[in-house]
Amino acid sequence: EVQLVESGGELVQPGGSLRLSCATSGFTFDDYGMSWVRQAPGKGLEWVGSINWDGVTTAYAASLKVRFTLSRDNAKNTLYLQMNKLESGDTAVYYCAAVTSDYWGQGTQVTVSS
């Protein structure tokens, strides 16, 4: 059974940092590029960024690349998203997904508020 389980979301103050994790199982993790996608309240899905199979190449939404960093640990079958200098506009449910597949996690809530 394919599983992608996000964690690390919580309430954080503006300017703070969080690291999200996406633990995967049931498929060959390093066969896939991976992405983070988010959905803010009342809005559609927004691509955050992607990372290739070995972690060498990353791509980000232009508005996020200065503050967000994707990484992965293929030995642990885990994807990460480091988020710095968080803003209220980063409040969203964050999902991880395997590129070119329908493998998605259930999401983790990030709330940025004072």
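The record above closes out task 2.4. Task 2.5 opens with a second protein, given below.
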Amino acid sequence: EVRLVESGGGVVQPGGSLRLSCVCSGFFIEGDDMTWYREVPGKEEFEWVALIAHDEKTRYADSVKGRFTVSRDIAKNMIYLQMNNLKTEDTAVYYCAKPPNRGRGTQVTVSS
């Protein structure tokens, strides 16, 4: 059974940083493309944030490019999202995903 569990969210001031983690089980991330999505409060849609492919190539949404970094630890079977220079518009619930599966998310709130 595929299971994804996110953690690391919290409340941070604009300009701050957070590192999200995703523990993956039921499969090996080495062979899969893994994605981070976010759901903005009040918007019933998911915004794609970042991807780390099976070959470790990464891609980012324009809105986070240069500020967010996605990475993985094969040995721990974990995915990470380092978020720097956070902005209020980054406030959202962040999900780790191996489509069609995703976790329950972790809340990130950027507020002064």
